[in-house]
């Protein structure tokens, strides 16, 4: 759970300011609930978070088919018409998602996302839930 919301928001803003083209940043739990966001609107962030739950599950299933992999999804990059979508593992049961337009440089984005996760990874964890309740 995120305890220092102001510091966390500042770090999301720092990522957005450091990479041209970012339109929205969403931090989500593995079960698709939005933890935090920067940019965009809350409803869009909720939809992105929900979609990411399925995407991270799919990526983990594909990763488990790679003989040298432990089945852990590290990052997904999808090029879409007009931009890019990034999804990165960001701690226990938490993910960092970024939507960016076409001017965003994928190498810079992945490096900056990795740096952010390294700095605040412990704050990005989301406890597992059962029946809508934290366990």
UniProtKB/TrEMBL annotation:
Gene3D superfamilies: Dynein light chain 2a, cytoplasmic. InterPro entries: Mycobact_SerProt_Inhib_Rv3364c (IPR053141), Roadblock/LAMTOR2_dom (IPR004942). SMART domains: Robl_LC7. Residues 9-100 form the Roadblock/LAMTOR2 domain. This is Dynein regulation protein LC7. It comes from Streptomyces olivochromogenes. The lineage of its organism: Bacteria, Bacillati, Actinomycetota, Actinomycetes, Kitasatosporales.
């Amino acid at each position: 759970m995120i305890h220092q919301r102001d510091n966390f928001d500042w770090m999301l803003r720092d990522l957005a300011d450091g990479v041209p083209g970012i339109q929205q940043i969403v931090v989500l739990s593995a079960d698709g609930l939005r933890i935090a966001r920067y940019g965009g609107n809350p409803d869009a962030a909720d939809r992105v978070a929900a979609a990411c739950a399925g995407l991270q599950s799919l990526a983990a299933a594909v990763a488990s088919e790679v003989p040298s992999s432990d089945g852990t999804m590290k990052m997904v990059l999808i090029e879409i018409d007009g931009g890019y979508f990034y999804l990165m593992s960001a701690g226990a049961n938490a993910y960092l998602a970024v939507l960016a337009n076409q001017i965003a440089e994928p190498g810079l984005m992945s490096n900056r996302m990795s740096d952010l996760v390294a700095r605040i990874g412990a704050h990005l964890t989301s406890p597992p839930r059962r029946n809508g309740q934290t366990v």
